[in-house]
# Entry
Amino acid sequence: MKLLITMYQDEDGVFIVECPAIPGCVSQGKSEADAVLNIREAIKECLQVRAEKGLPLTVTTREVEA
# Structure
């Protein structure tokens, strides 16, 4: 499964990363590489919890032009 993530660096220099297709799936890292590794683990855990609870694994995301 391929999922899009978003990433930004906060004011303390920490990289915050989120998977918009999975509500509440957020992680962080000291570097971009650490953040990507951490979100991969968070995605696995979030998908497992959602499956156990009988929730849809992902929600629909769309791209819009602003």
